[in-house]
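Posted in: Structural Biology > Protein-Ligand Complexes

Title: Requesting predicted complex, F7E in pocket

I'd be grateful if someone could produce the 3D structure tokens for the following input. Sequence and ligand are given below.
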Amino acid sequence: MPRALITGITGQDGLYLSELLLAKGYEVYGLIRGQNNPKQAVVERIVPDVQLISGDLTDLPSLQRAMGEARPDEVYNLGAISYVAYSWDNPAVTTQVTGQGVLNMLEATRTYAGDDVSSVRFYQASSSEMFGKAQEVPQRETTLLWPRSPYAVAKVFGHYLTINYRESYGMHATCGMLFNHESPRRGAEFVTRKVCMAAARISLGLQDSLGLGNLEARRDWGFAGDYVEAMWRMLQQPQPDNYVIATGVTHSIRDLLDVAFDAVGIEDWTPYVRHDESQIRPAEVDHLIGDASKAQEVLGWTPTVTFEELVQMMVAAELDELAVTRSLVE
Ligand code: NAP
Ligand code: F7E
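-- Reply #1 --
Done. Output follows.
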């Protein structure tokens, strides 16, 4: 039975990846931080077979201990401070977790693997945010990186360090350069979930309005369930490498609003949406759109969920959740 250690187990991708690996017969270990993490109950409910190990990406000894406990064949480093807007307000902690945390995980993996360093396969969650001020459209594995936020700078550090450990020590260390991926499990601070929650609540009269920042921002949005499949396929390759994972299609926040409000029967969302200046970022990323043709050729990976299907799925999940809450209250 193969063994996997996942950091970021309480996050969106950690949950989907756990489900995928458990279904494939893996023994799955998840790193969980904090002395009483409120999300532990969520993990235990959704993936009760995952074995949780206490540890923090900023604490190397805890990661070394986690390695010894999990004895992994595959390590998926998904843990990070992942909210881009937060990273301007908290650049030092973002650098420590999202950047230095990668160094800690690589070191813990390398020292655990010992002489047979390539025997443990390592996945680093790199991000399309690294392309930032895009120097080429669409972006591919070789596109020059031009990060535009403290989060993206930390991701660039982790990305190049992973490549460096591959080249320096012969580690089987792979970077997935993933574009935005969403789901009903997306954190409520991210724009897709925020809009889908608001559309559902407004349609039921539970909320009056929705404050948003830049409505012209565009993203290449896919479904998280598809993207964790790509992570797994990357680690099944004989050689480590870098792969862009994306749909190749972009949409604006306006498109997101159109589909989400349409899904609850509201044709015109403009009366409900107000401008929230606090959501405007010090720097935006310009034109992010991914070219995943390498992943298609080498991994046989293609996305299966369209943007419209994704948003409809997320709105439907919000409505289901609200119906459950209401039935409990009544
Ligand atoms: P997420 O939902 O924000 O989850 C982040 C995870 O990191 C959570 O489990 C969180 O744990 C954990 N974490 C935070 N600080 C930690 C620390 N000091 N020590 C250990 N764990 C810590 O993110 P996601 O959407 O699943 O994304 C997974 C990874 O892919 C992240 O690295 C993200 O930056 C990257 N990525 C995401 C996307 C996307 O569109 N989703 C695209 C490209 C790359 P707590 O619950 O305890 O906070
Ligand atoms: O913003 C605009 C905002 O926070 C998307 C992370 O998973 O994907 C994610 O980062 C866009 C931005 O995601 C609001 O200005 C407008 O242009 O949903 P987001 P993100 O910044 O793209 C990448 C690939 C990652 O790696 C990250 O970890 O939406 N926007 N109004 C807003 N965004 C938010 N959050 N809230 C608003 O009210």
